[in-house]
Amino acid sequence: MIKSISSAAVVVKDGKKAKKWYVDKLGFVVKSDEDHWITMAPPGGNGFEIHLCETKPLEKGNTGILFLVDSLDKTYTDLSKKGVKFSQKPIDKGWGKYAMMKDLDGNLFWLMEES
Q: Which residues of the chain have pLDDT under 70?
């Protein structure tokens, strides 16, 4: 089942400029900086990060909220049995295995195994 919220996306026009602003102005610390995946958090934070998501425009309904789970396949099976709809079944794109589920209003949430 879902264990925690890991990150939330913040849509930005330019990831590099946004990263500099968050570091210089807010004192955030860069946690990850790999192509499209730039995450940041305040120093000494509680593990929750923002993902600077460079995209135009944000995909319809994508909240950018990522839930961490113990087992993606088991969580997918359990939630599917409860009637939860998925826009993306579990898939591994090389940078991580994830799935995307929908709430009642079509908002999309990411599920990913905790590594």
A: 58-59
The Cα–Cα gap between 12 and 45 comes to 22
Task: Say if residues 41 and 50 touch (Cβ distance below 8 Å).
Answer: yes
Contact (CB, 8 A) for 98 and 72: yes
Cα dihedral: 21, 25, 31, 35 (round 10): 0
Query: Is the overall model pTM greater than 0.85, yes or no?
Result: no
Q: What is the pairing mode between strands 85-92 and 2-12?
A: unpaired
12 vs 92: CA distance, rounded Å: 25
- What's the structural domain count of the chain? 1
Strand (E) positions, 13-55?
29-34, 37-41, 49-54
Question: Around 11, how many Cα atoms within 13 Å sit in the side-chain half-sphere?
Answer: 9
Domain of residue 53 covers: 2-113
